[in-house]
Amino acid sequence: MRLDVISIFPEYLAPLELSLIGKARQDGLLNLSVHDLRDFTTDRHRTVDDTPYGGGAGMVMKPEPWALALESLLSEGARPTLIVPSPAGQVFSQSIAEELATEQQLVFACGRYEGIDERVIEWAAQHFEVRPMSLGDYVLNGGEVAVLAMVEAVARLLPGVIGNPESLIEESHQDGLLEYPVYTKPSQWRGSEIPEVLLSGNHAKIARFRRDEQLRRTVQRRPDLVALLDVERLNRADLQILREFGYQLLDGKLHQLG
User: Which function does this protein serve (predicted)?
Assistant: First the structure.
C-alpha cells in the first residue's frame, strides 16, 4: 500500500518511523511518504494561508499550494482516496479502517488554521475519492494527530504488519463488542488475583468467560453499540448475559426495557 501525507509540519509525523509502522516501512510492506505543503508555494515567504472571505477569525489555507501538492501525487489511470481530517467529516471507525486497508493508495491532507479553501475539496473530487473524516466530536489544532491515528489503524491491518494475525480477531470493535480484560503473571498482585477460570486449562470455559466479559464491558461502557449487534450472531448464553442488563430480543432487535 502507498500512503502519502501532506502537512506544513512534516516533523509532526515522525512517530510513523517507530514501532510496527516503522518496521513495516523498513520491510517494504508500506510505502509511506510525508510531503511538506510549503514546498508547493511560489512566493519567497512560502505562504500557505490568507484571511477568510466574508470576515471572521483565523486564517484559511490557500488553494493553489494544495492543488499543486495533490497533483504531484496523481498517476495516470489512478484515482486515489483522499482523506481530509475534519470535525465536519464522517466519524472514523474500525469498519472504515478495514475498508481503507484494501485501497492501493491513500492520501491524507492535514489542514490547519480554519481549514482548507473549500474549492480544493471540490476540485479534488474530480481526481480523488474524497472522504472527510473525523476522529470524534471535538476539534484539534490540525489534522496531523488524526492522521497518526488513522494510519496506524489502517496499516496494522495489512498482511505481515502484525506478527500474529490472530490478535486482530479478538480486538475491540472487531465483532461489534469491546475486547475482554486481559491478565499476565503474576497471578496474585497487590492482593488482587486473576479470575480463577483463566487457570483452569478449560478452553471452552475460558472462551465463554471472555465472551461474557465482552458483553458486560460493552453494555457498561458503550451501550450505544448494543443496539447495533447482529442478533444472528448471538447465542443463548449471550442473550442471557444481556437479559441480566435489561435487554430483550423483540422483533429481531435488542431493546433495553425499563
Answer: Specifically methylates guanosine-37 in various tRNAs.
